[in-house]
User: What shape does this take?
Amino acid sequence: MAYLKINNRPFEKSANNFVDELFRGLPDLFNENSGFVLKEGHVPVNIKETGNEYILEVIAPGFNKADFKIKLDANILTVSAEKKEDEITEADKVQPEKQIRREYSYKSFKRSFTIDDKTDATGIEASYVNGVMILNLPKRKEVREAAKEIIIK
Assistant: This one.
């Protein structure tokens, strides 16, 4: 069951209060309890293991592939993203856009993971689909030496 906090302020006749009145009572999707906003610089990550690989799913909606950097240094895998602010164009200077309300923004983040010796670092692949950065970390193939017979001297 979800509880909604509703602010019942008297309606005043102004543009800002009109917009507030339109959005009053809607659930706050990006609050601390929603799962989208965590500590500064963190995003939710799901980690799965299959028979031959590990799968990391970094939840980061609103970014582009070019906003991400994925780096492997020794055994530390770092996933980061930074969204560049939109530049003001000549059309914006002529006909400026007035923002009435801003409830979300894109913040940069950085997450690091320690990978173990079971992971094949040379075969890591990444894809960004529908707001989720998916990293496939293949497991190393275990090379077992063939049994050998020891001759007694």
